[in-house]
Amino acid sequence: MSEQGAIRQSELFESHWKPVEIKRVRDTLLLDSDWYKEGTAIWIRPSGQLRLRIAEVDIRCAQRFTEMIVRRPAKNKMFVMCAEVGGDGNMKAVRIPRRLSAEQLLGKPIRVEVVTDVNGGTSYQHEMLSIS
After folding, report:
1. 79 is a domain residue
2. Which of 18, 21, 40, 73 has the fewest Cβ atoms surrounding its Cβ within 10 A?
3. Into how many domains does the chain fold?
4. Do residues 82 and 69 touch, judged by C-beta distance below 8 A?
């Protein structure tokens, strides 16, 4: 069981980070008390998360979920165009798992994870893609 407020290292760093880079950042910026290993998972305590944000490391933050309705397929088959339920109707590109297709989801509501990085960029992905 993870400690209160601890986040998995894989959830914290953006997907473009390589494991070697993550280890280098962890070893240089964090104290041993800022993280711990539980089985194969590495957990970052709140003190370590704060150190990473202060150092302006490109990590994920402010994760939340929202309901969206799939309106149409996107040009890339790994994405669908969705409109937020009760929103203004603006369409957002949402990444979906490979085992799902736009045709299967058309017109259906899906749960979407909204991920904002420290630089203010926002991306959307199907809840099945979020790392738990």
Report:
1. yes
2. 40
3. 2
4. yes
